UniProtKB/TrEMBL annotation, chains A, B, C, D, E, F:
Highest taxon listed in the record's lineage: Bacteria
Protein name: Agmatinase
Entry-linked NCBIfam families: agmatinase
Phylogenetic lineage: Bacteria, Pseudomonadati, Pseudomonadota, Alphaproteobacteria, Rhodobacterales
Family the UniProt entry places it in: Belongs to the arginase family. Agmatinase subfamily.
UniProt keyword list: Hydrolase, Manganese, Metal-binding
An example Gene Ontology molecular-function term: agmatinase activity
Gene Ontology annotations of biological process type: putrescine biosynthetic process from arginine, via agmatine
Cofactor: Mn(2+)
């Protein structure tokens, strides 16, 4: 039987626009809160965009995602998972970022996630730009490299920008491979598209064994076939899911800094997550929602819905283990 | 030969942005107008959203839909129906709502539609929130229950909200079945999706024999197959069409209060109406356009186009009968 | 020495866009929280707009005001009051409204405020539409009528709307006088303007002894002179402050439902509050911020700043009493 | 006693967002309507911007002004004039423009206004760009030149643009003087500002005896002093009022094509009209509202309010004559 | 080896938001510039919308497209063409339009393009409304009629508007056929949809042998099949490509004046261009991007991406010839 | 006689929306351009916001300011200065920033300005956030400290943020005093307001002799009196002007990251610059325009107009010296 403390308030009782907005109207349980040890899945905001090389804004992402996530309810309409009853979920608050120092900010993020993991909590992150994934992986993969299924229009495997800057939102997974956080043979990147400067990132992927599925292949093969391959690649090992909102076509997700034309629609955006069933997810993130480019909040609402789908996958898996 | 009085002004003569905006640039024929008796299809606005439990705004819908409907012309590009020549159409104006009293407002709507029906006019409504359909059905189905094809992301079959409130935009069709306005065996709901609190609405549908086609089934089977089933369900009897703009994916229709991710695209949104050919439509509505959430008017334009497609179905049927 | 629990986080340490947004980054202390008894000033949201007769939206006000209030800091730049050190302040959360039943909603509000007042807390409200003030006054003036300084472009003294609806955002103070909650001889309304249907509200004001200062007089006499008169009118008795954001010109506060052209500018909007120094304020509200009409949040930021000024007045007075 | 036909519906009975939007909710009386002869003041839309040399949009002005004008009520709050009771007012609809031919469009406008004037109606125009005033003046001043009080940030006295184009929104009053429609000695231009290419327009003004009051002088002397001079200049003769919305500062009126920084505020914008009391106004216009640059409608609402003030001046004068 | 002068700056070195925005960050080479003779493909802006019969705005198109085109990089992600290395490209600036005289404006455009063609440059145009194509074709097809593949929701084959106006954005290709600029047997129009006034344009198409592929056929057959037919129609002869942004569904391209519901998605929007491989393209345009209807720039970004795809086709063909 | 090369194109010949947008339609003269040595005043963009501690965006400022600056013409309407004829002006382009490294970015800026100053050019900067002023001053005051008149709502004299970060947009002038770039006795800060954390910045100002004029004093004394004092403070020595757009009230300038309620209006915003006549200006900047918070561009247009006024002051002074 569910502990009412961990159940979101129903909009049949209190309208969705009411109340201080936490993720999905969950209780806020800070890292120093006595109930932290009970939490199984922790929703965490990383309001940070120091890795952004073009149009900033993802630092405002967690707040708008929290706001729009009030629209979500108790049960997944497609899979019928009821995540908040299956596992204990909470909003763990935001990592306090340092917008003026990238290294300090990354250290703060890794420390926060290390504490979360030590408490036995699966972290589910709302970014923040994509550099966020690197300090998170430093905590998640602290003991051993993990696999990754990565939805994006960019590989984020570049070496450096602006004359040697090695930490931007275009480089996190290059660094993660170099640091031994990712097992490149168990990494699959899906939806890659858009114009490029060169093939440096693809060359790196090939040399390391990372599987890159470009959007043309995605559209030609369809969601089910592509996701079956992705599940094969990561296998039964521990796997991180990284979901850049710019994976989705910009008509559906205009609120992001580096959109690329011709992506999946919103239905496919949810389908790919539902096809993660069975993957051993040890952490996940949804990044690059940039409110200044979509003040109406549609992108944040789509992002919140993707997070809900990710949560259902994690909850389903955790409750199956129990 | 058509009576010029009932023909919209052509934009080849007067630009679309000119003139006081009525629906599709039709003449305004009020209920006390001498020419009311000539009208065959009446476009009616219901500027009302007292049934809204979340984000208000549909009270502003009719005005923005009228504005954007100036973009429409004389002939359906796909079906080649010319509705304004086939039947006499008019803008009957708005029902004067009472925003401060739900029961009084519903009474006003039912009285208005009763007069319209007594004049032998098929009503085509621009809402308003979805509670609008209930007082309209009280007039349309005053003598006998009707069937219904219902496009929506929600069933609107809930029992009550907020500790017993029985009249909201989530309950109209529960009430309509209870009041004997709908024949549940001849009701088909298409496009249902999104997270839910529970299965109460689906349980009610099952127990009453209402057919619910969730979005997963819609996407898997395709428009033609689904609509063939819908036509079978309603058969040759009198049928009401209720079209909630949130049936369509929010990238296409952001201007609505309770969007759900992963719906049909705009082409499918029109196709489903075209597939109503042959259904005996005794009334139709397009509801939940909420201008405050799409000030640019794209949602209202899409809504106006859906209304035009509905009008073509009705006009085609009426002229075939004549 | 201040209790750190009650001090907002500084943006010199954690950026303003980070963290779950409470009013002014204060701690959230619910009505059942053990620390409620320590709170001296409580910031309360009333997400409700059922009294709105025209363009809805204030139900979304508290959330946007909370968001924008992150911009505020510890010390008033003009008066040098440091409210959070002077008195213990907290965000008491939102009253859970019932958007479908006006009477039930008003009862809920009055009950919430009664509990707040019983705890010895001065309530500072973020609305909600102006009908909010009525159920709040039912709690605040439960024992004896209070005086009121009311900033607005409308008197809100009308008898009824829509054929007898007596509870709308145009009637709260008529009801409050009738119910003995306000002492009309100690009521001053400032900034009244805009077109009107008739003089019914002014006639009522005159007959009851309410002082109405129209905008023409405000602009001609200036802030200091007008406010000296207002202070004289309310004298040393208990006084409620009600501040409708549409008091301010719509260029400064576009996000509201019934704007009137030609109001005060933003500097005057703050000055009038600073001139309340010495008034015995037993409660205050800032109402009618409507986010759908200003998604950029400038109106909410202005509203949050007015609330901060009101808080400084209250804190200054309470600490002077101590 | 007023004829109810000519009275706008009250929002105390029917909310402002309801109904097909005519100017100020007045009856629509077309030029062929039997009741035209009863009308005393006619509100006319000119949806046209072919004179625009920079950012187009005023062709959409009349529709948005009609929409926002629903906010206005029966009585002027400052002057207590009740225009709809004082004189019979109607919405005469829009002149059908020709967006592809400037000369044809001007001819259409002049013909429309000639019919209006022949019916004994004082025309009150919602533009349209400022070239609109020229074909209107050709009708209004067909028999003898009139005086003019002109509120604007530009003189619109230029000779030509783009290698000899003599009909743009920068030239109407040069043409009007040349055509003998304006008596330059009885013309006063108020609020002129912004950068210029040269002094050609000012030289023309000086040589013809047109009085130009730049914004610096306006701010230094104040509304009352400036307007006393303006009234002296036009004297007791027939006078046209032309009001460009860009007279007002762009913070108050962003929805216009050629804004200039540093104009009057919204209160002054209304005051200058109120100071026209006693001027013999034979026609007036409010031009250059451009909805694409202010989709929220604040500029149109300000424009509608200026039109209401102009209407009060005209109604007051006409009823005084009666 | 590429001349660095003709290579866009990389965003790996200078961020995309920096620098004066030319098309795709190319060098600006005016018609009088010494390096004009080296240019092989010239990107040209035509900031003009005098042919617009409804909602204006495309005059602002080139500037917003230039701004958003900074997002594009060196290599096509799908076809791997590197256009800036394959051929020498430059931004040739804007044609200086005359917004007050259609004939003069068309003459200016034709003269500009004649000079471009005399310099041996393939012109790639960013409009501007669709009338732009006519004066461009007068230069491109000065010697012999060309074929055309035309993506649009309208045929633009109408005879005239507004009582005889023969030059609007609804008539360019009627005129082009009449003037012998297009070989109608080698013209294919794809994506046609939306309501119509009559069949006049289709009748003209039929009588001249123009192939019109309506959207229903497009959706039923798919991109590859339709484009194979289009390539067959134009064959190996010289062919012009005209791409109206309203070909694409308005959810993807809201920033346009005459949107029609139910068009292709953004992926198909790019696919159709990629399928032009092998067509002998002698000029191309992308028209009807209207920034006032999409200030966020998503439409312009989509338009810029279409232009990039067109450029890749042209560059690939030119370099294959070399 | 003026060199036509250095004169902006007139909008009487080419409309303002046409052409690649440089500052005020001036020629682009890069640092390596042969004509650099002729330039007397250089307009420079610094697209950079790494110093921002709250809401980012000023990196997009220069591009939007260039776009809106097309609205400006040849002559100052108030002072009649014709800057482009008085001195040779050019757009020197943008400093290429490094968004990922604050120190490297500041070095790039200082190097750029050093070259500009060595060429004898007075730099006039469009930022960028306020940290921009520090590296600019390192070039401008390389030889001797300068005085400064600083318009802002914040002193920007703080020591550090976020646990020791010494280079943010809240610290530039603290650093500049410490580095001997500013003579604090010749520094005057005008318009300071808003809530604060503490008095640390004011204490520093007092201890160094910097004159701070808070907004209350500004409003009480008026522009002329305040500016007379400011001129006295800087005297006849070399003086830098730094103008933060948030000096102006947010209703006039919403597009900025840290707005403060209650500032000057737009007319005062220009007046304060005009009152700089006679000051020996050796450089000036206008910073903190943040396009994501005002996509309509009103703030950028106001900023461009302030830059034009600054240019007129500099041009007037330089031509008087000649």
């Amino acid at each position: 039987m569910s502990d009412p403390f961990f159940l979101p308030v129903s909009a049949m009782e209190m309208p969705r626009y009411a109340g201080i907005p936490t993720f999905m109207r969950l209780p806020h349980v800070g890292l120093d809160d006595a109930r932290l040890s009970e939490v199984q899945v922790g929703l965490i905001g990383v309001p940070w965009d120091s890795g952004t090389t073009n149009r900033p804004g993802p630092r405002h992402g967690p707040r708008q995602i929290r706001d729009m996530s009030s629209m979500l309810r108790a049960e997944n309409g497609a899979t019928h998972v009821r995540p908040f009853e299956a596992v204990k979920c909470a909003d763990l608050g935001d990592v306090s970022p340092n917008p003026a120092d990238i290294q300090d900010a990354m250290d703060r993020i890794t420390r926060f996630y290390t504490r979360v993991l030590e408490a036995g909590i699966v972290p589910l992150t709302a970014g923040g730009d994509h550099l966020t994934s690197l300090p998170v992986l430093r905590a998640v993969a602290a003991k051993a490299p993990v696999g990754m299924i990565h939805f994006d229009s960019h590989t984020d495997l570049f070496h450096s920008y602006f004359n040697g800057m090695m930490y931007t939102h275009g480089t996190p997974f290059r660094r993660a491979v170099e640091e031994g956080l990712l097992d490149p043979k168990r990494v699959c990147q899906i939806g890659i598209r858009g114009s490029t400067y060169d093939q440096e990132d693809r060359d790196f992927a090939r040399s390391e064994g990372i599987r890159v599925i470009p959007i043309e292949e995605f559209h030609a093969r369809g969601v089910e076939d592509v996701m079956a391959e992705a599940r094969d690649i990561v296998g039964q090992g521990e796997t991180y899911i990284s979901y850049d909102i710019d994976f989705i076509d910009p008509a559906f997700a205009p609120g992001t800094g580096t959109p690329e034309i011709g992506g999946p629609n919103s239905y496919q955006a949810l389908q790919v997550v539902r096809e993660l069933k069975g993957v051993k997810v040890v952490g996940a993130d949804l990044v690059e929602v940039s409110p200044p480019f979509d003040s109406a909040g549609g992108t944040a609402y789509l992002g919140a819905t993707v997070i809900f789908e990710l949560l259902c996958i994690i909850a389903d898996q955790l409750s199956a283990q129990a």
